[in-house]
Amino acid sequence: MPKIEVDPKLCKGCYLCVKACPKKCLKKSDKFSKTGYYPSEMADEKACIGCAMCYAVCPDLAITVFK
Ligand code: SF4
Ligand code: SF4
Description:
Blueprint: E1 3-6, H1 16-20, E2 26-28, E3 40-42, H2 53-57, E4 63-66
Antiparallel strand pairs: 1-4, 2-3
Bound molecules: iron/sulfur cluster (2 copies).
């Protein structure tokens, strides 16, 4: 099953990935990161199809996709 990880140390909370995901898998976290942002996080892991759109739009290379 495909899976993604968001690195909260790199994420700057722009939510481009949230908007780009065709399956609406990602959401804004309610937890503040150590770097002072609300990072994105997985909202629906099972819906992920591994398309890597989130990875492609992230300007901070904060997302890793595992296929
Ligand atoms: S696109 Fe990258 S920096 Fe922006 S919210 Fe998503 S993971 Fe964070
Ligand atoms: S790999 Fe595709 S389906 Fe999975 S979270 Fe990223 S954009 Fe959404």
